[in-house]
Recover the amino acids of this structure.
């Protein structure tokens, strides 16, 4: 599965999608879900929480391990995806359809500064060695 | 450091395994979904590469007498060829050097299967003790042997499909009993809580055996599912649930320690001198989340610690083994500290699941 070109990415394996209303949706990448394996639990941040860029704000747990999810940019949490409470495995089957939370970014330019799909692929490839 | 490989390394890669560094060995963690592999073993049949475990043959006059002193369980319990016994091997202070299985072959020959990560340490300890107490014994690491575990309700039938010549000798085996079938040494043992065999065979035959089992419908299972299967079955993992810093009565191994017989064994005096202040119990998480090793367990009697925790695919909730103060009772509710939260868990008697279903 290739990384969608309409998304932005972080070195800590989150994907970021800019929505029509200016908020951003955040999930974890295909590469991240593959590393973690079968998902069994997702913990999302509280709506209204103000996050700093790179702050730990969510957790995904596979059978194998727990892994932190980081805020890609600074902003306020506007929504969380409650469907993942009962179906965490959706992250495995559809990582780019399974957003975990939404942020209203403090500064829209921060989002533009994140990696594009090609740069993220380079980062993943270099990690493998 | 170069990772050690088993003779099945190429087969794992050809079957799409994700490989990981497991204590210096390049081993398959899964071949796709760890949860699917777990259910495959509970419901049908799966095979595990356990070639990294070590077979040790101990031979000579007086080998039984020596093992009765070396091990915490009593080798006198096995007197028929092929009978197996699970035991801890202890330090003089009671710390667990390893857990292992011994097989009675003849009065001059016992076979011992030890863990991969502890094999060199174990053999050195055995040789050191033998030098004092049984200098005539030979202790040989059987690096020429491979081992495959085939586990699940259909496992034995699948092995017979592949090795029809072994069926007659292995059909009547009880649990913890093995049969010598020429090049194959086949034991009705395992680490999953399911029926099945562990097969020892010459290294050069193991790849063909592996592919033949696969052709018969046995799926390869990685270390990920091996861990959730053994945890559900309430089986200890060396290095997590027990180690040299804890004595066996604090690690759920009381049933394997023979303190009744008159015989002396290494570690016995220490066990008699120090009653266990802690014990191993099962936990089931009542809140949402996943129990993991080293999380703190807050009980009315004090603080304990999870030794192994994961998500149980059979129970579809999180379970754990935890070392807690001895006063904690089955049915108690405790709090587990996970990140910044305290979550509720119930103390249960383990195993959690065996033979395809929940034991709770």
């Amino acid at each position: 599965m290739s990384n969608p070109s309409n998304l932005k990415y972080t070195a800590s394996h989150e994907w970021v999608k800019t929505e029509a209303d200016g908020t951003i949706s955040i999930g974890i990448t295909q590469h991240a879900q593959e590393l973690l394996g079968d998902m069994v639990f997702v913990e999302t941040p509280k709506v209204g929480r103000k996050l700093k860029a790179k702050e730990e704000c969510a957790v995904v747990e596979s059978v194998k391990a727990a892994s932190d999810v980081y805020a890609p940019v600074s902003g306020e949490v506007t929504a969380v995806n409650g469907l993942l409470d009962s179906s965490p495995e959706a992250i495995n089957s559809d990582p780019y359809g399974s957003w975990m939370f939404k942020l209203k970014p403090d500064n829209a330019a921060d989002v533009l500064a994140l990696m594009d799909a090609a740069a993220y692929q380079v980062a993943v490839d270099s990690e493998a060695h | 450091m170069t990772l050690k490989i088993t003779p099945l390394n190429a087969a794992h890669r050809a079957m799409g395994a994700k490989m990981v560094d497991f204590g210096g060995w390049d081993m398959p963690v899964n071949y796709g979904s760890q949860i699917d592999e777990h259910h495959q073993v509970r419901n049908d049949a799966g095979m595990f590469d356990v070639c990294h475990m070590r077979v040790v043959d101990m031979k000579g006059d007086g080998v039984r007498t020596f093992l009765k002193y070396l091990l915490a369980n009593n080798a006198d319990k096995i007197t028929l060829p092929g009978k197996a016994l699970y035991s801890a091997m202890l330090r003089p202070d009671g710390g667990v050097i390893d857990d292992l299985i011994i097989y009675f072959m003849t009065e001059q020959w016992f076979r011992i299967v030890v863990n991969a990560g502890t094999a060199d340490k174990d053999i050195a300890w055995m040789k050191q003790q033998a030098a004092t107490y049984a200098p005539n014994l030979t202790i040989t690491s059987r690096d020429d042997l491979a081992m495959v575990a085939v586990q699940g309700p259909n496992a034995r039938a699948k092995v017979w499909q592949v090795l029809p010549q072994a069926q007659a000798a292995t059909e009547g085996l009880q649990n913890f009993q093995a049969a010598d079938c020429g090049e194959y040494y086949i034991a009705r043992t395992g680490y999953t809580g399911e029926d099945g065999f562990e097969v020892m065979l010459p290294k050069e035959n193991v790849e063909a055996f592996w592919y033949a089992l696969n052709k018969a419908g046995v799926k390869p299972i990685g270390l990920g599912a091996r861990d959730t299967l053994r945890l559900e079955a309430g089986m200890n993992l060396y290095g997590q649930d027990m180690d040299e810093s804890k004595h066996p009565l604090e690690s759920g191994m009381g049933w394997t320690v023979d303190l009744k017989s008159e015989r002396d064994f290494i570690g016995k005096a220490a066990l008699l001198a120090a009653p266990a202040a802690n014990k191993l119990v099962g936990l089931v998480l009542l809140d949402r989340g996943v129990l993991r090793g080293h999380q703190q367990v807050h009980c009315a009697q004090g603080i304990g610690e999870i030794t192994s925790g994961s998500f149980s695919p059979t129970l579809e909730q999180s379970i754990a083994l935890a070392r807690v103060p001895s006063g904690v009772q089955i049915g108690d509710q405790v709090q587990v500290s996970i990140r910044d939260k305290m979550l509720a868990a119930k103390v249960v008697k383990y195993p959690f699941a065996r033979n395809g279903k929940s034991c709770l």
